[in-house]
Amino acid sequence: MFIRAKSRRAMILAFIQRYIEEHGFPPSIREIGPAVGIRSTKAVKYHLDILVEQGMLKRTTGKARSLKTAVPMHSLPVVGRIAAGSPVLAIENIESEVSLSHFQGCFLLKVQGESMTGAGIMNGDLVIVRQQATAQNNDIVVGLIGDEATVKRFKREHNQIILKPENPDFEPIVIDKTREEFRIIGVVVGLLRNYK
To answer: Could you tell me the domains of the chain?
Structure first.
């Protein structure tokens, strides 16, 4: 999945907000990186500097763990599109924001395809995703197979992961963990549908 800089920064903001809510203090740069898929602390600092410049974050210079969101997170960033058919390269970009204060720390992905209609997830829906790296069997997850992202029902069996569609017209994706790179981006915790 190619993640654009704006989307990465939206993920950083969501992570910082969630971390502060859970721990009562902000995360360190070293904690932010792995949570949003950035390996370099220098790259994390670069994104944080831009968020401070844009007025999205406040920071006390020279003080550790001084980050705080400048504006209350009463909306979720729509960070891109996700395949609900065959996995496709997911290009993320902040398209808009939706007010949902009780889902702070989450982000939205717009569904493309019809593989999850049996779970009530339709083409064009916005799934609310809690960013996390683990899932339980039968959770609906956003998963990354190599550089392709998809939303499917998750099941772990021995050395395999099965990503099951909720539409009989689509085949499950079976991933051999010993051969293929797979990563969970998050778990779907809600859905928004626009009826316009």
So the answer is: 2-69 (1.10.10.10), 76-192 (2.10.109.10)
